[in-house]
Design the sequence.
């Protein structure tokens, strides 16, 4: 199956038909729910404390539903209007459920004496509660339209990788990623975290994403769950403001007790700091290595230039 | 769109000095009651911009009267937030908040922040006048190429 990101803009891939398909697939719902629960776990919000959470790329509201169940208030944004419409319907259904339940309760109170047997009574054991989410039609690559220090946390489920593909003239992935991350840095409260689950196509993409996040000032790392399974493997970019961040262990098969293989890339600004200007050649390309290699070639009988003071010397910039 | 979300929305269009708070021009409003979590409301009071909330409340009041019927009254809010919430933890001896007053205040805040939904209308940037439209309760904040 080819990646959706390669077929075009997110709003054109997730059109009305695709949006409905996405929202009604039980497999998709199950997978997204699991990922969301794991992301919320990594957010490390104190138990029982409702927070104001941003859901980037909320789509049809599958992740928002999980946030609600855990008692949080959330704002979701997505670039696909069709997906948002499906999410809206879900909220509308809930709203109607609440209004109907309220009406029913009113009627039940009035009919106390009559004691009618109602079929639907058995189904509604739990009272449907109103949705605590709000939706925004917005493109994350252009920043986030909120004032500073708004959110207690941010999650993103399977959305970040869309920033790595340019779908319009003038869209540069690195620019969009940097804009998104610097905006995210501002709208999160100090002490808040962001957990962004994404599907990198290549290792370079994962590195590009991590680097853009580090450049704007975030500390953090990538947590990889089930690194050995192509199907189950999940990448979570965990971003914090704490400098001394230690990436939690990723999950792996059969390791409930944390003895599984841990794979996480620690991303730190210091790694990119080249103020020292010490031009150390990359591993393997020092003069000694070159001379050695030439010897080996000579022994093989190949035609090799003689060694001189110019061997392995730094050349000027190519034009 | 709830007024809680509106309290945080800002226009980040290029060249905008201060795109906050956005003026609400509602054309359709709905009311949906929701359970109150007093602790959460108290918590959030310390973090919202109260003056922006006041002006937002005034901007939607007229629409509420026409859309929600005359028996629905938008709770009124004091000009200044009770000291207890604006000052964090400090307690003023002179001002003794009545228990019932406090509860009533929190309930009004809850109704205004959570229960009133702007379904259609516009959000207008106070600086540049840029209009963001709201359709089916979802504000469209997509920026054009030259606004990023």
Sequence:
């Amino acid at each position: 199956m080819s990646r959706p990101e390669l077929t075009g803009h997110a709003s054109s891939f997730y059109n009305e038909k695709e949006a409905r398909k996405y929202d009604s697939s039980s497999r998709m719902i199950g997978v997204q729910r699991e990922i969301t629960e794991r992301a919320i776990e990594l957010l490390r919000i104190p138990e029982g404390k409702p927070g104001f959470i941003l859901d980037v790329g909320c789509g049809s509201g599958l992740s928002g539903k999980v946030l609600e169940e855990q008692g949080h208030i959330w704002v979701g944004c997505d670039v696909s209007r069709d997906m948002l419409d499906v999410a809206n319907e879900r909220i509308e259904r809930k709203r109607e459920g609440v209004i109907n339940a309220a009406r029913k309760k009113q009627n039940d109170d009035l009919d106390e004496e009559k004691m009618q047997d109602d079929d639907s009574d058995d189904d509604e054991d739990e009272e449907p509660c109103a949705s605590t989410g709000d939706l925004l039609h917005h493109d994350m690559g252009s920043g986030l339209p909120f004032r500073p220090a708004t959110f207690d946390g941010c999650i993103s489920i399977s959305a970040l990788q869309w920033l790595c593909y340019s779908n319009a003239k003038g869209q540069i992935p690195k620019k969009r990623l940097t804009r998104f991350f610097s905006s995210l840095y501002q709208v999160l409260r100090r002490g808040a975290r962001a957990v962004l689950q994404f599907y990198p196509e290549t290792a370079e993409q994962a590195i590009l994403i991590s680097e853009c996040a580090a450049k704007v000032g975030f500390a953090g790392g990538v947590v990889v769950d089930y690194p050995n399974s192509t199907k189950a493997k999940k990448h979570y970019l965990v971003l914090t403001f704490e400098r001394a961040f230690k990436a939690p262990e990723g999950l792996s098969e059969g390791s409930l007790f944390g003895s599984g293989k841990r794979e996480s890339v620690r991303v730190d600004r210091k790694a990119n700091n080249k103020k020292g200007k010490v031009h150390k050649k990359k591993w393997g390309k020092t003069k000694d290595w070159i001379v050695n290699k030439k010897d080996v070639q000579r022994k093989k009988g190949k035609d090799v230039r003689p060694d001189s003071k110019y061997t392995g010397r730094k050349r000027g910039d190519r034009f | 769109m709830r007024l809680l979300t509106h309290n945080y929305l800002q226009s980040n269009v290029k060249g905008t000095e201060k795109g906050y708070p956005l003026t609400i021009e509602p054309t359709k409003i709905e009311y949906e009651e929701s359970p109150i979590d007093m602790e959460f409301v108290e918590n959030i009071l310390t973090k919202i911009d109260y003056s922006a909330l006041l002006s937002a409340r005034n901007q939607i009041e007229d629409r509420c009267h026409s859309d929600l019927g005359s028996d629905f009254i938008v709770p009124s809010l004091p000009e200044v937030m009770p000291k207890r919430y604006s000052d964090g933890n400090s307690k003023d001896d002179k001002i003794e908040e009545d228990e019932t007053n406090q509860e009533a205040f929190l309930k009004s805040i809850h109704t205004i922040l959570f229960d009133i939904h702007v379904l259609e209308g516009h959000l207008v940037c106070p600086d540049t006048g840029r209009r963001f439209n709201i359709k089916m309760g979802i504000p469209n904040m997509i920026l054009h190429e030259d606004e990023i």
Summary: The first strand of chain A starts at residue 52 and ends at 56. Residues 53 and 305 of chain A are 65 Å apart (CA to CA). DSSP finds eight helices and eight strands in chain A. Chain A touches chain B through 34 residues (CB under 8 Å).
